[in-house]
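During the no-cost extension, the postdoctoral fellow (Dr. R.K.) reprocessed legacy sequence entries with the updated structure-token encoder. One reprocessed record is reproduced below for audit purposes.
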Amino acid sequence: MRASNYYRAAEFYLHGDPADPRITELSSKGVELFRKALTCEEVRVEMVDIPYEGTTLPGYFYPCDATGEPRPTLILQTGFDGTQEELYLGGVTAATRRGFHCLTFEGPGQGRVIREQGLPFRVDWEKVVTPVVDYALSRPEVQADKIALEGVSFGGYMAPRAAAFEHRLAACIANGGVYDFMGSHVPEGMERDQFFDLIRQDTAGFDKGMFEMMKTNTDMRWSITNGMFTFGVDSPGEWMLKASEYNLGGVADKVKCPTLVIDVENELNFTGQAKLLYDALTYPKTWMLFTIEEGAEEHCQIGAALLSAQRIFDWLEDTFS
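Re-encoded structure tokens follow.
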């Protein structure tokens, strides 16, 4: 498991050149070792291929027991830069210990789907989740009226976006909540529309400035190159304009299932976004804040997995009961 994570980390910064052969080489080796680790641990798991628009999406189905009896099921997905293998210790084990089956998957822009199939992110994420729900309902172990969807990080946009149109979901978890993907990246003192209009007016000039800053700013270089890679575009300006479409305005009020919106006190990636999402929802909703005092204040409660799982699955059990 540790070796798998080393390969994942080694591949993480290579996206500045999508043609780099090490991208598929290292990611494939990481997946191979992850699966070997599951065998060593004798984990109950099935590798699955989920039908999707003439191809398939990779997934793992983790039953919570061997009875085959229908159980509540959590569909768990990652976000902007994660893989579904990371979700094993980031939610799967907690779900199965609490009596939930767990189905993970990777969609366009994520994991093997972008690296091996070349499919970039799409804004209408419900078109991705609906085939995943179809697949879940095809399994007799899945309790049809108790399917939840949790999205992690950028998945905190994708999950509520999907739930707004896929009404077979009985619960939605945005961990953490994202209302406007690019909303936290608009320069202070500038209006959102003004910022993106400026990029449209001089995309080449914007790109030149960004490439110059990327030379000395590792975080910026990584986020922009990963954005270009996963969104299938060729420049920083193209990526930011494409990413600006990922906004739940006029969409959030269509969610018709109980929704848990999670925020943390030291949210640096999507500052303020969870509150915007929470306020926009109109169906029964719950606000869950993780704090510095709890040691759970970082993005997606990194460093506090046990506390995070306890509170999230307590909410899910209460919601389903």
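The CA atoms of residues 265 and 293 lie 10 Å apart. The chain has a mean pLDDT of 96. The remaining legacy entries will be reprocessed before the final report is submitted.
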